[in-house]
């Protein structure tokens, strides 16, 4: 997949940051070292530093653009290019830490459920993560439906529904001797402003694989599928998420897990 756009991702910083704050609030240990898996452009690092000012910190991300943005915004911080799967295998620049935390990243890792025990093993005290649980929401159903039409389907191929578990699923995967596991879900009622806000929201995250495929197809074939796709998806999203006088409401479900060692 092509690289991410930090600028697009940061368009709704407050809305995207709130679940991370809720996750951090449920971590009850006092880590001396922290690894953030999928740190993105580093916009959430201040939350970690505010909560644990004396802890060392390493942000890991597989996107060169995100790491570049994080280093530019926080030159005194440590941000390294790394893959979640390498971290799970004990490879990479920060193989373990007291707290290993991740926000809206693991859903992008194929077979992430199988990696969870190994990821938890890299945490000396606490392994905490959140993932979007909205892949059956109207936004994602519209994305799959529009991408499945021609001429887009020929350029994009099948659109995967990412396998994210429920709180009970993650509890079963991580609970066991030596661990106390807290899992829950929250549906946030965001109110987005501007024109086509749900299109802008999903274009920066969930729609990225589809949009990158269309951009690559346009570059190779000299077509303009991306522009027409944006128009068609935007129309579908406006119908699914009608604008109110005070903004456009977007219900967004998140799943949270905090696994803490007891021995």
TrEMBL record:
Keyword Transferase: yes
Keywords, sorted A to Z: Methyltransferase, Transferase
CDD domains for this protein: AdoMet_MTases (cd02440)
InterPro entries: SAM-dependent_MTases_sf, Trans_acon_MeTrfase_C
SUPFAM superfamilies, per the entry: S-adenosyl-L-methionine-dependent methyltransferases
UniProt GO MF annotations: trans-aconitate 2-methyltransferase activity
A GO biological-process term: methylation
Name of this protein: Trans-aconitate 2-methyltransferase
Origin species: Krasilnikoviella flava
Lineage, highest ranks first: Bacteria, Bacillati, Actinomycetota, Actinomycetes, Micrococcales
